[in-house]
Design goal:
single chain, about 325 residues, alpha+beta, D-amino Acid Aminotransferase, Chain A, domain 1, six-stranded antiparallel beta sheet
């Protein structure tokens, strides 16, 4: 586990924003900076240290970009036998070079348990992406079967909205053939990662996938997969006893931070963004490091020498 002193010393050495016009046209996401070279049909993606919640960028967290980038590339390598992905190489701990793809306009969200936004909708008696969950469920309960609850892919600062399979096809967001292809890919990827996590004392609760189409028409996984930003992870061997007592599971993902915002700051995306204490930032890093180390079986080695932005520029050979 990463020493708290190292985290505290890096609280101000984070990547909030980076613009590298030498690399191509810039597209700014919630967390990632994208630079697209139309000539090479490649994209440089920089994972910043921005922390978003409820579709708003809240603050920055040291080592977050490195953790997400390295964990996502770990999973891309582990799952390439199931479906191809967009990765070319990893020129820096915060950076990937990828094939440029035409992004599909939906996100595929897989749920094995009910919690988070699905639980909040369930409490209001609402369906999620056209799916009505059984009566009598409790928060954090395992679902009778794994479900896919797709969403639209909103612009930065806007809300992704749940959408059903039938609506996706009828609105021609993607064809039925494409949807059923990514539906099968999604379920296969989730099963593989769920089994892998179970061997490492983790429950993969839910996750989201994004897909794109390469210039030759191949559908590939893009963005990130099975990171604590885009998935939920709980400690496996304490889950059942805590659930039976009505306690919150041991959470190793961003949901802990969302819940802190809701309970301590009464914040769900509306109004002024609250100030985040250093202790919450440090706890956030600890949980992400723990999930990284439990998933990979490797110690997280933070890069702490010098300024992060200058290091990225050096590794990308930008003067």
């Amino acid at each position: 586990m990463l020493d708290e002193t190292i985290i505290r010393n890096q609280l101000q050495n984070t990547v909030e924003e980076i613009d590298l016009p030498q690399l191509g046209n810039r597209y700014k996401g919630k967390v990632r900076e994208n630079f697209i070279n139309s000539e090479t049909q490649q994209r440089i993606i920089v994972s910043t240290d921005r922390l978003s919640a409820f579709d708003k960028v809240i603050t920055t967290i040291p080592f977050k970009g490195q953790l997400l980038n390295q964990l996502s590339t770990f999973w891309f390598e582990k799952t390439q036998h199931i479906t191809p992905n967009h990765i070319i190489d990893l020129p820096d701990p915060n950076v990937v070079r990828v094939h440029e793809c035409e992004s599909l306009p939906i996100e595929m969200i897989v749920r094995a348990y009910i919690t988070g936004s699905a639980w909040r909708a369930y409490q209001k008696g609402e369906s999620v992406s056209g799916i009505t969950f059984p009566e009598g469920l409790k928060n954090y309960q395992k679902l009778p079967e794994i479900v896919i609850t797709p969403s639209t892919k909103a612009a930065v600062g806007e809300h992704d909205m749940p959408i059903s399979k039938e609506e996706i096809i009828s609105q021609n967001l993607v064809s039925r053939e494409v949807y059923e292809d990514i539906e099968q890919k999604t379920l296969s990827l989730f099963k593989f990662a769920s089994d892998y996590c179970a061997q490492n004392n983790l429950i993969l609760v839910d996750c989201k996938f994004e897909y794109g189409k390469t210039k030759d028409g191949t559908i590939v996984v893009i963005d990130e997969i099975f990171t604590p930003d885009a998935s939920r992870f709980w400690i496996r061997d304490t889950y059942q006893s805590k659930f039976e007592r009505g306690d919150v599971p041991d959470i190793l993902d961003k949901e802990f931070f969302r819940q802190w915002l809701i309970t301590e700051k009464n914040y769900m995306g509306d109004g002024p963004i609250p100030e985040i204490p250093d202790e919450i930032k440090i706890e956030f890093v600890k949980r992400y490091v723990q999930s990284y180390e439990m998933i990979t079986g490797q110690e997280f080695v933070p890069v702490i020498e010098g300024n992060v932005i200058e290091r990225i520029k050096k590794n990308l050979k930008i003067v």
